[in-house]
Amino acid sequence: MTNALVVKGLSLSVPSASGRVTVIDDLSFDIPAGRRVGLVGESGSGKSLTAYSLMRLIKEPVRIEKGEIFLEGQEILGMDMKKFRHLRGNDISMIYQDPMSALNPIMRIGAQIIESIQLHSDLNRSQARKAAIELLASVGIPEPDRRIDSYPFEMSGGMLQRVVIAIALSGQPKVLIADEATTALDVTTQARVLTLIDNLAAERGLSVLLITHDLGVAAQFSDELMVMYAGKLVEHGSVSQIFSNPVHPYTKALLNSHCDYTIDVNEPINSIAGQPPRPDNRPTGCVFSPRCPHVQPKCRETVPQLEIAQDRLTACFRAEELFELGRLNR
Amino acid sequence: MKFNWRYSFSGFLILLILGICLAAPILAPYDPNAIAVADAFSGPTAKNWMGADDLGRDSFSRILYGGRITILIAMAATAIALLIGTTWGLVAGVRRGWVDEFLMRTADATMAIPQILFALVCVSAVGASVISLPIVVGILLSPTTARMARSAVVTELASDYVTAAIASGTKRSKLILSEVMPNIAPQLLVQLSINAAAAVMLEATLSFIGLGIQPPNASWGTLMLQGYAKIWNTYWFVFFPALAVTITILAFNAYGERIRVTMDSRRSSV
Amino acid sequence: MGVFLLRRAASSLSVLALSVVLVFMSIRILPGDPVLAKLGAATGVTPEALEALREEAGLNRPLLVQLISWIGDAFRGDLGVSYFSQFPVTQLVTARIPVTLEVTFFIILIAVVLALILAPLSTLKPGSIVDRVIGYYTSIGLSIPGFVVGIILILVFSLTLQWLPSRGFVPISENLVENLKLMILPSVTGGLTATPYLVRYLRASMLEVKQSPFVRTAEGKGLSNVRVLFRHILPNSLVPTLTMLGLIVGYTLSGVVVIEYMYGLPGIGSLAIESAFKRDYAVIQGVALTIISFFILTTFVFDILCGIVDPRLRLAKGQKSEI
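Predict the joint structure of the above. Result:
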């Protein structure tokens, strides 16, 4: 299986009172063609920054310190920007978090879609308009020939998100990034939009990187799961593997703290003690060590690398034993 | 620190200009009105640092004295604008309701009248003098001050500390004077600087078109008017006063900017 | 759209009314007797003669009556009669308005064009050398009085280079080329004076818009920076700027007065100055009314333009459709 997306050693920094500090630390992962990968983590873990890096939308003061990103074999971070713009929105595109503010408020939605279509094709005005109407229909917008001339403020959040999806699909994407694409929507709409993305991705054979802080959404939608903590990828494996036996202490704690209607209301919610580290206060060694219940002296000195532990990748020195422990407890 | 340096530079410049001009009688080498036909039309020389005008009067001295008049008028106008404008805005901001509505509409109406035109109208009625000009200019500048004062007051009054103070029974007048005013003082200072710059500009413009300070008194604007008539051979008549006016206005604007930037950065770092 | 227009019109009219009253009152209330001024230092004028003249000029009627009668006349196009020349004010004004309109038009044109070039240049790469130079220009530009700009331009272009004439006016009907040549320096003077304000405002507006999420979406489509700037950032920055432009017109009208005087253009600005010297209140009033009306009309037009650019402003609230 060829890889649609390969990230190697991506590191980002931001300025602080004590100089530049790391916000994404040596991030590496692959996304094979046609796969759905979920990226979960709490706010501030660096999920969105990862997404922006893939689209080269990182702006000062945030800086990409090092790393390589291969989109279908082509390295894009070092690529000439003019050349990359042909790929951006075309081979790789993104769905944004808040549909209400993600669209130009004084431009008709049709015009915004057509702009993208014409950018990535040779269609003339009327052909592009037809294509836009078809695109609107495929994302499930009723009466697309009428709606195409609406302004964003005339439409609801769910509708607007479909428009954003339409724009993302207006080229020939191989990779689709959904950055908290359903967070701003209500639960019912959320489900509908996710189904839509699911269907469209299946139809076109797209790889999807679904970024979310909602474990349930990630589990439902993805084939694989990546867990990020404080800018570091700590676990990467298939959804069933991770959910049945979370190895990394952070993943375990995360799954433990998940709330839904099945939990016992009389029991306190399992939260993880402590706080994620501030960027200018990154611990030496493993970034989770201050809060880890299985911490050892080694963890505070050396940074654990993402390594294969049984059936998945984990960044923990005690991965093997924790895996066994988890397996036994099942 | 870089920012401190610039902050004090424009402030320093202002003090320098103020000092020099106000001390004109001490600093000027010659009587500004002393005619010395022999030196007429001379360019900058050792005797006349900025040259001499068509009647041989020393330009440097005239500029010093001219600055004195310009600065005095501008300062008076600024003070008047501050007084009227702040009261105007405070009353509107505190009273609210139709008083607020009416006062602000009046402010808008005043601002709708192009400044020079308004000044023209007033000056033609009362004549131009060292008394009338500050009043006219001051009145002209007060609506903007009023607007600023009003919005500042309204914002402050909506803050939590005010609500707390009122809840604990503080009298409104005491509250305004001792608590609110100090908090809006920086904004007033910014407005003061900007008004000063505007006042200098207005006075200079009015004098330049002949509706300001009349000869034999001469403010910078009047000097430029006289210089403009002779511009073909002796450009320096106009040049030096023009330079003086521009630098003064720049200094006031820069100072106001600096304070505003400081205020903004302080607010955002909270 | 109709409701929007009506609301704006009502607002403009109320401001106009208040300003006019202000001007009128200022003249009447401020010390200084127009009749006395008219007579100048003529000796031997008896108090009775003075009274007779005042009666004739209607200055003895109650203020309110004077105001209303003047407004009434103004509606009929009669702005009174000049105290000095006995020419009807309306005639004086209409004869000179085209000149002022022409100059004002060119000034605004230059200011807008310059701003539309400088502000985007500045925003393309904030903090760059280009941006900083433009920043210095606006700071200094704001501090140079209009007539000083004029003086500098005259020194350079008329005096030294001898490229352009520095005074005078030729009507278009007579000679278009000469007319335009004589318009260059005055327009550039006014334009350069107004540009810094406009650039500052537009730049600030654009930088703010640049932070909006939809700009990121636009970039995410693969659009070039220039395209994003002109197609997405600029239009969204225009709405607040248009309001500012209305104010700029106000500044310009103020400055036009001085510019006409400096360059010897026979427009209503120089008419105002001449009348101010002579204390010819009738003319001043008429000119003031004209200029203020024009200013308020322009602000009104710009308000409407805002409505056209931003559909949210003109479509009535709550036009949300089905979820």
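The domain at 13-25+50-267 of chain B is CATH 1.10.3720.10 (MetI-like fold).
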